[in-house]
Amino acid sequence: MMMKETIRVIQVGLGPIGREVARHVLARPGLELVGAVDVSADLAGRPLAEVLECGAPDGIVVTADPGELIAVARPDIAILCTASKLAQAASHMRPYLSQGVSIVTSCEEATAPDLENDPLARTVDDWARAGNAAVLGTGVNPGFLMDLWPVAMSLPCLRVRSVEVERVQDAAPRRKPFRDKIGAGLTLEDFEEKVAVGDFGHVGLETCLHMIVRAFGWTLREFEEGLEPVLANSTTTCPGGAEIPEGGVRGIHQWIHGYVGDDETPRIRLRFLAAVGEKESWDRVVLEGEPDIRCIIEGGTPGEQATAGALINGVFVLHGAAPGFHAAIDLPWAHYRE
Questions:
Q1: Overall number of domains in the chain
Q2: 197-222: buried (b, 16+ CB within 10 Å) or exposed (e) per residue?
C-alpha cells in the first residue's frame, strides 16, 4: 500500500480565523504545519504554541519574514488569511508565489477570479505561473454557501430558470471582527457614514453572483445591489456584556439581484442578513427549474469552523494542481478527507 504524501503547510495571518485554521491543520492527517507568519509586533517572535494555546511543535516561532521561513521550512502550500480585498491580499501573495509556494486563501475577492477582465487577477495568475505555483480562494461565503452550493444542487436539473440563496444568521456567536464588519453596535448615523465612505459590509455577494453566472453559462446583463442596517427594537446585549440600545445597529442586510439576457426580472437573487439577536439562523437554496430544488440548513452554518474546514480541505485539492489562479469550479471539488 502506498504511503500518503504529507503536505507541508505554513499559516500566514494569525487573526481569529488564522489561529482556528492552524489548530486544525495540526490535527489533520496528511498535513504538517511547518511555520507561521504574521507581521504584528504582538505576535512576531513568539512561539506558535503560545499563540495558539495548544500543542504546536516547540521549534515553530512566528516570523514576519516569509523569505527566511520559506528557505528553512520548504512549505508546499501557504494558507493565507490576511485580507478580504484582492488588492491587499495580492501583495501578501507575491513572496510565496515567487518561491513556488502555492496559496489557499480566505480572501473573499479571490474565490472567482476574472482573468479576462480583471488586471489584478491576471497579475496574480502571472506570478503563480512564473513561480510554478497555484492559487485558490475559498471559504464558507463566498466559496460555498452562496455560490458552489447552489451550483452543486443543480446536478439533477435538466434546466434552471432562477436561483435564490438566503443566508440569515445570529451574529452573537461570531467573532468580534465579524460583528464589527457588519456594524453591530454602531449608531445609525455612524453606520450611514461608513456606507457613504464605501468599503463596508459583507464582501463577496458580487463574487458569488459571478461564480453562479459562470457555472451556468449565463450572460449577465446587469445587477443591482442594496445594503441597509438592521436596527434594535429594544436593548440587545452583545457577547461580553456590551449593549446595543433601542434604535442602534444590530447588523446588516445586503442583497444583490442579477439580470440575465433579456429577462425583465432577476434570475439570481442573493440575500445576506447577519445581526446580533436574530432569533433563528438558516441557509437556504431554491432553484426553480426542471425539477425544482429546495434545500435548507437549519440553524445555519457556523462561519469560523466552516471557513477553516473549507481552507484545509482546499489544500488537498490545490496540491498538485496546474500553475495559475484558479476558481473553485475549475478544480476537482474540495471535500473532507483524512
A1: 2
A2: eeebbbbbbbbbbbbbbbbbebebee
